Amino acid sequence: MELAQRGQPIAKPASRPFINNRKVMDALGKAVIYALTTAGAIIFIAPWAWMVSASFQPLGDIFNWPPTWIPEHFTLENYTGFFETAGLGRLFFNSAFLALTITGLQLFFNSLAAYTFAKRRFPGRDIIFIILLSTLMIPGQVTLIPAYLILQHIPLFGGNDIFGQGGHGWLDSYWGLIIPAMSSIYGIFLLRQYMKSIPDELIDAAKIDGASEFRIYAQVIVPLSGPALAAMGIFTFTYVWNDFFWPLITISSPDLRTLPLGLALFVVKNRTVWDLVMAGSVVATLPILIIFLLFQRYFIRGIALTGLKG
């Protein structure tokens, strides 16, 4: 009262800051998402990180408990022993040749089929696509024996007569690894979903200019489908490079073995040469990492845009 009487203003009590509940909830939601994403990334990366660390450790230190993330006795002898393995160059050549060949064939045939199902109109198109898509529900193990028998009885190959008898057909050959994998329903579906987002007006304009269907596919559809093609190419290359089971039952000649089959050779009777296996596994993952880093932008964009239009 005395201050008011002397002409000095009375200080108002500080107002409580307004809290936006919606912003708080959004921040908490993002924090939870980031925490779960970080935890998931650590769970997925930890085995690979331990493998890289183990590849630089002596055999006696690899299985220490608790695990040693930073090598205490750093060594390059594991890599030296791995690169001195007989026939290693042939293993790398076979894996690279098969991965590049199958990836190229899938990019071509899958994109052709995807363009047909996405932009071409013909009777029964959607029914045929649904039937093909339904085959994804069939486990791959179910078709192994039929595929093996078909390859074994290919006429006029591998010592077979015209009726497919008397020899091994396409078994134990590059044909048996490449031909069954030259197209995939998943790849067709992935590319079809992306191509459906391409405006039909571009195709109509090309037709008015007199472009043929194949020219429209090659000069209009393929350049605009770059992100989806990059995503499918990475998927295909990774799968073929890491494939172990199908080459295992198809290949018997040492000259045709792939890198995953070569790594399995380090398991000798009841003993596994873990130091060389770790070094070889790290080397085997490098091509996939390099390809992903080179095409990462297109890969992420292709995955993000694939399902925009059904």
State mean pLDDT (0 to 100 scale). 83
CATH architecture of the largest domain: Orthogonal Bundle
User: Helical element count?
Assistant: 16
Number of domains in the coordinates? Answer: 2
**Helical fraction:** 55-70%
End-to-end separation in angstroms reads: 75 Å
CATH topology label of the largest domain:
MetI-like fold
Q: Approximately how much beta-strand content do the residues carry?
A: under 5%
Strand order of the largest sheet: 1-2
Quick one: how many beta strands? 2
Structural class: mainly alpha
CATH superfamily of the largest domain: MetI-like
Low-pLDDT sequence parts: none
Report what the structure shows.
The protein has 310 residues and is mainly alpha-helical. The chain folds into 2 domains: 19-80, no CATH class; 85-305, Orthogonal Bundle (MetI-like fold). 64% of the residues lie in helices and 1% in strands. It is built from 16 helices and 2 strands. The chain has a two-stranded antiparallel ribbon. A hairpin with a 2-residue loop joins strand 1 and strand 2 (271-272). It starts with a helix and ends in a 5-residue tail after the last helix.
